[in-house]
Amino acid sequence: ERHARLVVEVEGRWRERYGRDLEALRGALEPVVGDGTLASSALAEAVAPPPGTWRAKRETPQILPHYPLVLHRGGYPDGS
């Protein structure tokens, strides 16, 4: 509940500060994320586990992760 209020509050401040730029960014990102469900998102393929792995044996989530994990296994933009 508090989290939802904070999101609305922060978005309101960003809207005041960044205006049209924020709306343009949001418009560009909404098709990628969809409505927040995995089925509606273009990111679904990216979070699908490879066949034959332990993750493939687990139930597929129906929503996108709210807080994607940063794993210390490389893949950073600087190449590390």
Counting DSSP E segments of at least 2 residues, the number of strands comes to 0
Q: How many separate domains make up the residues?
A: 2
Beginning-to-end CA distance, first to last residue: 38 Å
Radius of gyration of CA atoms, rounded to a whole number: 16 Å
Residue share in β-strands: under 5%
What is the chain-wise order of helices and strands?
A: HHHH
Structural class: mainly alpha
Biggest beta sheet attributes: none
Regions with little confidence, pLDDT below 50 for 5+ residues = none
Taking all residues together, what is the mean pLDDT? 83
Chain oligomer state: single chain
Structural summary, described in words:
With 80 residues, this protein is mainly α. The chain folds into two domains: 1-31; 34-65, no CATH class. The protein has four helices and no strands. The N and C termini lie far apart (38 Å).
Topology:
Blueprint: H1 2-18, H2 20-33, H3 44-47, H4 54-57
Briefly, what is this?
This protein is an all-alpha fold and 80 residues long. It folds into two domains: 1-31; 34-65, no CATH class.
